[in-house]
Structure formats: C-alpha cells, structure tokens
Write a structure and sequence with these properties.
It is built from seven helices and seven strands. It is of the alpha/beta class and about 250 residues long.
Length: about 250
Amino acid sequence: MNSLAGKVGIVTGAASGIGRAAALAFAREGVALVLADRDEAGGAATCKTVLDAGGRAIFLATDVSDAEACVRMVAAASHHFGRLDLALNNAAIQGPYAPIAEYPLDGWAATLGINLSGVFYCLRAEIPLLLASGGGAIVNVASISGLISFQNQSGYVAAKHGVVGLTKAACNEYGPLGIRCNAIAPGATETPMLPGGISAEFRDVLPARRAAQPEEIAEAAVWLCSPRSSYVNGICMPVDGGYLVQ
C-alpha cells in the first residue's frame, strides 16, 4: 500500500521547476495538494496536469513573502481537504548577482523576503495545522548555497543558510510533537532559474558531469515526506550529483 496515499500536502513554487516536478510526484503517490505560486498561469497549468492525471489538487496564487498569504494558503488545505500532513516549502528566486559592497538593497530585501522570510511564514502557518493532524513532515528547499558559498550571490547564500537554520530550529522545537522537518540542498538543476544550463567548467567539476533534472530533486522530497524516512529529522540532504565532495 502506498504510504502517502490519502495524505494532504502543500507545495509552494509549484508553477515550474522543482515545485512542478514535486507536485506531480506527490500526486502520483496519492497526496491531495494545495499548489501555490505567484505565477498564476504556471501554477494553474501544474494543477491542471495533476487533475488530468486523476489526482486531487487546487491552485492558490500566493506570494510567500506575504505572511497573510501563507495563512490563507494553509487555510485552503483545511477548507478543501480537512487536514495537513506534509509541506514542501520550495518557492524561491535567484536574486541579483553582485559583490556585497555593490549588492542592491531592493534585491537583498526581495531575495530574503521570498527565500528566507517566505519559508518562515510558511512554517509558522503550517505547523499548527500539522499539529492538529497529529504531526507530519516538512521539507524546506535550501541549496548547496546553504552549505557553502558562491561569489556575487550574497543574498541567495545568506537566505539559503538561513533556511538550513530554520529547518534545524523546527526539528528541535517540534520533533517531540510529531513533526519532522528536513531540508534538501539541490545542486545545479535544469529549471527556469538556470537558463542555458551549466557551464562546461562547472560540469567538469561535477562527479555526475551534468545538471540534475527537477524530477530527481522531487524524489528526494517525496522520500523525506514519507514514512520511509521516519527516523530522519533535522538534516539538510545534498542532492547535488556529488558537487560537495570537492
């Protein structure tokens, strides 16, 4: 029997890339979904694909940098499906490329607002409903940039390091209450955030010698939300083709 069948979940950033792949993967496992993204056309398209395949889903236009929007998103799970069992907090932007002394202030605010505060707002809204359902699982999408750093990406690096910290804090606080909270750290992945793919130089230092497909990242999220990972809590799991072994 499918261990996730009949569960209810949230996927943010569901319009494309990892979020879209995860929505399809969770739906395949029998999860009823609230799909969220500020890209209304892309999110609606993902929802239609889930429904056409026989899954259950609704789409809600959501900007995760708005705390009240995150509350409405979680309320939709309760209203439409009666509970919440899992969440994938995935919505993110790349942000500007610039050294710290030249990093635009509006770019810093936007990057931290979506990539870090957005995860916090989602957690803050999701956890009470997960507790009301008897516990559950959360996966936050960090990045290898949450474990190491890259030049000219201070906003993204700082936000993703913060996501790893939030994940550990949530595990520490709510693990005793039946909530598992883990993070995944994707490496280079073929999504709209990686236009044109990876450079030859980057590919040559990857043991995998290629970027990931979104579906490969999604499978890690599905596993971490499933009872198959029941004793895994508070980790940040790289899904990076071996990049971090350097």
